[in-house]
Amino acid sequence: MNLPNLLTLSRIVLTVPALLLLTTGNGTVLYFLSAVVFIVAALTDFFDGRIARKRGLVTDLGKFLDQLSDKILVTSIFLGFLTLSKVSVWFLFLMIFRDTMVSGIRMMASSQGRVIAADFFGKAKTVSQMAFIGILYLNVIWDLFDPLMIFIIELLVAVLTLASGFNYLLKNLQIFKGGS
Questions:
Q1: H helix or E strand, kind and range, residue 28
Q2: pLDDT recorded at residue 114
Q3: Burial, 120: exposed, middle or buried (Cβ in 10 Å; 0-12, 13-18, 19+)?
Q4: Domain CATH number, residue 90
Q5: pTM of the predicted protein model
Q6: Number of domains in the chain
């Protein structure tokens, strides 16, 4: 197991304390600690890829684990914010719909010996979702944004999330025909 893959796996492990701190109680200190753990986890997403590319350690396992750990971290934290009534059910549904569709596309491609790495839109989607999580943390800790602003940001992130999913679908339609 190389260093980038260990960093990626640490993102999954860090999801647990981040989620527990977010949902355990109603306290600014717990929300702040959860945010710190989330930031550390999000930074592993930045560093694992950079280290892998710089040291020539990019692997199919790393590409798979990176996508999986991103989904676990982001979906779990959004679920935590859903329990606090800070995000909408429809938003979480669209996010899970997109991730399930893209995972299905990746499974189909894998059965044909292909690996589909994240593209620009997938990375932009992840960055926008993580930024939205950051905004939600700022809001539960310091109440910086009014509900309309949160809704507008939620809507923009949802549009980017869906656009990213449909981009993967359109770029990979040939896998459903058995083509390469």
A1: helix 28-55
A2: 87
A3: exposed
A4: 1.20.120.1760
A5: 0.93
A6: 1
